[in-house]
């Protein structure tokens, strides 16, 4: 497989203004030098605690923002520094499924109009062709096409997320960023929506960047997993390797807090409690950004930022503990 999406040294810094004259007093480094590939047909899980920058990263990759710097290419096309206006023709290729289906659907539009909107904007199909396509999409996501003229409020949360997914699929995208697509849903229907996303991936050959704070769910759906902390990816690995043998101390701590699915191991996996809070992304520590909380911190960690690199085949991390394992 080859990379469909390639991200290099992506930065998304937001200015902070304060005071009567709205003077610029600093910046939040929400995404601060992130690099990864998303391979064709895979699901790359992007995990981390709330505020780590994972949602901003997903939106930046789709160029929903003007990024601070970095390279992004999708399907061989460079979209990193491209002005918004020129991104239009790339829009159909890359889509987003949002966390809150309630907030992302216009309550004054019928389901048909919502799913049809991207077709209106980006295609020259006739009205009849568009309506036929909407009906097909409703079938694909498991919505009864008889309900096409209803409004979002008439649907349950899970059904509304299906509407959002149908809209994202309308232009036959290759790449979809799913930002916590089930976090706002009832636990009882979360699995249905995850299964639907997996079925659609298979059926349409989709590639996902799957953003979530839920490590158990990501373990189920992801091919590989990237872990973010304070605006940086600290580790990226194939799913099995990451869960069985996490390399970065932050990943270890994060995974030690996940309930153990194997009852025979219950209580045997040591719970790692991190000291202190996550530092502010406007004032990250010198050196390794995890050094203020890391149980394995060394002197070098407070001075030199560890380089993010492949320390074992297919396994990337940024940590001085792996300095000696280079090639
Ligand atoms: Fe911990 Fe040092 Fe590795 Fe950072 S570089 S994660 S502080 S051991
Ligand atoms: Mg978020």
UniProtKB/TrEMBL annotation:
InterPro entries: AAA+_ATPase, ABC_transp_ATP-bind, ABC_transporter-like_ATP-bd, ABC_transporter-like_CS, Oligopep_ABC_C, P-loop_NTPase. GO terms for biological process: peptide transport; transmembrane transport. Coiled coil: none annotated. It comes from the Bacteria. GO terms for cellular component: plasma membrane. Keywords: ATP-binding, Nucleotide-binding, Transport. GO terms for molecular function: ATP binding; ATP hydrolysis activity. Residues 5-255 form the ABC transporter domain. It is found in: Cell inner membrane. It is a peripheral membrane protein. PROSITE patterns: ABC_TRANSPORTER_1 (PS00211), ABC_TRANSPORTER_2 (PS50893). Belongs to the ABC transporter superfamily. NCBIfam families: oligo_HPY (TIGR01727), PRK11308.1 (NF008453). This is ABC transporter ATP-binding protein.
């Amino acid at each position: 497989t080859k990379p469909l999406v390639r991200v290099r040294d992506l930065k998304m810094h937001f200015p902070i203004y304060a005071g009567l004259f709205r003077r610029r007093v600093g910046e939040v480094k929400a995404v601060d030098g992130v690099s990864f590939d998303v391979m064709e047909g895979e699901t790359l899980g992007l995990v981390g605690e709330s505020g780590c920058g994972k949602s901003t990263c997903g939106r930046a990759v789709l160029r929903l923002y003007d990024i601070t710097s970095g390279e992004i290419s999708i399907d061989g096309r460079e979209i990193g520094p491209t002005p918004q206006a020129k991104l239009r023709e790339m829009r159909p290729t890359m889509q987003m499924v949002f966390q809150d289906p309630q907030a992302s659907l216009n309550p004054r539009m019928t389901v048909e109009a919502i799913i049809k909107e991207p077709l209106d904007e980006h295609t020259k199909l006739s009205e009849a062709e568009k309506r036929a396509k909407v009906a097909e999409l409703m079938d694909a996501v498991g919505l009864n096409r008889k309900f096409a003229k209803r409004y979002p409020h008439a649907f349950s949360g899970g059904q509304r997320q299906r509407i959002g997914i149908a809209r994202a699929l309308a232009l036959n995208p290759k790449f979809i960023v799913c930002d916590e697509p089930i976090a706002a849903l009832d636990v009882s229907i979360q699995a249905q929506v995850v299964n639907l996303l997996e079925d659609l991936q298979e059926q349409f050959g989709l590639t996902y960047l799957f953003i979530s704070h839920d490590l158990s769910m990501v373990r189920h759906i992801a091919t590989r997993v990237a872990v973010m902390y304070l605006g940086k990816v600290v580790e990226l690995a194939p799913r099995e390797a990451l869960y069985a043998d996490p390399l970065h101390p932050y990943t270890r701590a994060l995974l030690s807090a996940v309930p153990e699915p194997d009852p025979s191991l219950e209580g045997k996996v040591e719970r790692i409690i991190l000291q202190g809070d996550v530092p502010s992304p406007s004032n990250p520590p010198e050196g390794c950004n995890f050094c203020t909380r890391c149980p394995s911190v060394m002197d070098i960690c407070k001075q030199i930022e560890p380089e993010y690199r492949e320390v074992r085949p297919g396994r990337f991390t940024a940590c001085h503990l792996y300095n000696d394992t280079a090639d």
